[in-house]
Amino acid sequence: MAKVVVGMSGGVDSSVAAYLLKKQGYDVIGVTMQIWQNPDQACRLEERGCCGLSAVEDARRVAGVLGIPYYVMNFKDDFRKYVMDYFVDEYRHGRTPNPCIACNRYIKWEGLLKRSLDIGADYIATGHYARIETLPNGRIAIKNSVTAEKDQTYVLYSLTQEQLRHTLMPVGDYDKPTIRKIAEEAGLPVAHKRDSEDVCFIPDGDTGAFLDSELGAEAPGEGNYVDREGHILGKHKGITHYTIGQRKGLGVAFGHRVFVQKLDVPKNEVVLGENEDLFTDTLTADHLVYMSEEHFSEEKTYIGKIRYSDPGTPCHIRYSGDDLEVSFEKKVRAVTPGQALVLYDGDYVAGGGIIK
Fold first, then answer.
1. 200 is catalytic
2. Mean pLDDT of 111-125
């Protein structure tokens, strides 16, 4: 009987993943990853339904219903290094990171998978809405889930072939209402628990205040808002408070809607402009990784996504040294340095990189 460690967040998706795998005959072990840095943060995470103390209690109750062993594993040092410190450093340099991608790559897979294999497991599993398939070329790839609304393939693009070889994702074959129905019929106590929110380590959602606290005296101070020609328009409160395409929270009335176009770190300036100025049909990406194929084809049309909520746009690629130059068939809005570019070949994740 194959042994699988299921990463249980205390939510309905990972709980149903454990239930489905047990039903399929796997020897299932439930694990919650402790990522909170101190007791105060654990309490503040309580209401978010992911990774806090409530996650532990909910996951433990589910494991009891399923009759599976359950453990809490400490990943707080890795989470600080690979997720929180990375998040802060990216903002410090004027980029907007996706912490979920870093967490998936380095904590849920690199960290949890290693520990799981060390204790004799064959696989790890999560409650992500995605599927895994082995392709005719022998590569293993993430495939879109059956539900576009909840699809999470974007945040999984950087997983390696070895990690995918030891991964199960049973939830990807269902939509959310069906998952909740399965949980209800199985008697799982989290059947109607609300979904967790993004950036689990910022409970109040105030990214700027979090960054100011983390950076302390190194936090960027106020500087100038400028237009595209460099004319001063007002004062901003620090570049870590802004991201490309942002309209709300600028703190200055301009008489019409303006949007963040660029963060100029050396000058400590936030460039503002019109909505139409945010559209482009090109970008450059680096830190390339490959999934469904060993290299991207300059002859192929891919679907490119530039953020989690992006439905995707047909595009073409060209290599330029170690970088990838991407041309979209129609303009895309608010290309943001630090976010991931994920390329799809049909329903499969071909790979991706980080937007420069």
1. yes
2. 95
